[in-house]
Specification:
heterodimer, A: 174 residues, alpha/beta, 16% strand, B: 207 residues, alpha+beta, five-stranded mixed barrel, 5 helices, globular
Chain lengths: 174, 207
């Protein structure tokens, strides 16, 4: 059994590199989009919240040469609402990367409001920008001592922008 | 935070499958992988202080259902993302924006904090579940098994008639085996190897 496992791991890593073109490092998230250029639509939210998403797009586009935009005809979607659970944000990929990949983002205004106090707006934009980071193939809680917007333990009041580490990871992946 | 057990090998397998062009779109459409951004607690004092309810208990049954976002009459567009959105659009949006959850009925065997009683049955909601032939999972969530296992849970109260939920899927769930120290379902959880006696002492100290 142990021998089989020893053989399987390097084979699996080789297969992953062949399939995706990127090494299987801890920060790579396979649920992201296959390129840095894509659109998504916002759904069921007012213009204030659409602006939060636009802010998130700009924060990435200005730093990693991405072209993330909004389009009402896009399959990927993003929204926000009041959910009776403790999470702040959610990302879920759909389809197969490179074939028909889309995604959904949800932000939980209820829990953010309760936890953030006077920093509510900053926590919203930190969460939105974090979730968009998943669409750029960044995983949660990267295994690094460097600062990262993708860490759940980040200070959501001050962690507003992709960090040098996040930018380098996007450049490496794409 | 790392899950206990052979997660690294599992992650490689998942990564290979996720990136593999041989995976059919049909197969992918039957499995949806959620990823959540949730609060993290620095230490035992913080997570105990934040919990509305801390109990020890056993899951009796569970069911999968959709968690729909709630609507509000709040007119501040920042506080209410649906303020100003037409009613017909909101109705469709609520259907589309639902999240799959598993709600477990838990029999309480010990109360460490909060307004519940021993013997009471409470509901605990966790993300993930199988609905309409699609399985939704969150890699950080351990769905409570209805097999007699006992757990200690640190819970948030979302109001009358609504299930509780864990403050954090990895830091707020611990296996409890008799008088043995608690065993977290993930590594580096703040109450790992603590006892219910320790938790009660901290609750008392925070009063």
């Amino acid at each position: 059994m142990r021998l089989r496992r020893l053989l399987f791991v390097p084979l699996a890593v080789t297969g992953l590199i062949a399939a995706t073109g990127v090494p299987a490092q801890a920060t790579y998230y396979s649920g992201g989009m296959p390129s840095r250029t894509f659109n998504y639509k916002t759904h069921g939210i007012n213009s204030t919240w659409v602006e939060f998403y636009d802010t998130g797009n700009i924060r990435w586009n200005q730093r990693v040469s991405s072209h993330i935009g909004r389009s009402t005809s896009a399959a990927a979607d993003a929204t926000a609402g009041s959910y009776s659970q403790s999470w702040y944000g959610q990302y879920s990929p759909h389809g197969v990367r490179g074939i028909n990949r889309t995604f959904s983002i949800k932000v939980n205004s209820r829990t953010l409001q309760a936890a953030a106090g006077s920093n509510y707006t900053k926590w919203i934009t930190s969460t939105v920008t974090h979730e968009i980071g998943h669409s750029l193939s960044l995983a949660d809680n990267p295994n690094t001592t460097q600062a990262s917007l993708m860490k759940h333990s980040r200070n959501r009041t001050t962690s507003q922008l992709p960090t040098a580490y996040d930018i380098a990871e996007v450049e490496r992946i794409y | 935070m790392r899950r206990k057990g052979g997660i690294a090998a599992g992650a490689i397998v998942f990564a290979v499958l996720s990136g593999c062009s041989a995976q059919s779109a049909t197969e992918a459409s039957k499995n949806v992988e959620y990823s959540f951004d949730y609060p993290v607690y620095d230490n035992a004092e913080q997570i105990i202080g934040t919990a509305d309810v801390i109990v020890r208990g056993t899951a009796l049954t569970s069911r999968a259902e959709w968690l729909y976002p709630e609507t509000s009459t709040e007119t501040d567009p920042e506080l209410n993302p649906q303020a100003g959105v037409p009613a017909d659009e909101i109705a469709q949006w609520r259907q589309d924006a639902a999240v799959a959850v598993t709600v477990s009925t838990l029999k309480v065997t010990e109360v460490l904090k909060g307004e519940v009683k021993v013997g009471e049955q409470i509901e605990v909601s966790q993300v993930g579940g199988t609905l309409d032939g699609v399985t939704y999972t969150d890699e950080d969530t351990t769905i409570l098994p209805s097999d007699g296992s006992e757990f200690v849970l640190l819970l948030a109260d979302h109001g009358d008639g609504k299930p509780f939920d864990l403050l954090n899927p990895e830091q707020a769930l611990y296996e409890a085996n008799g008088a043995e120290p608690l065993e977290a379902v993930a590594e580096d959880a703040p109450l790992d190897n603590e006892t219910t006696k320790d938790i009660k002492a901290e609750v008392a100290a925070q009063k």
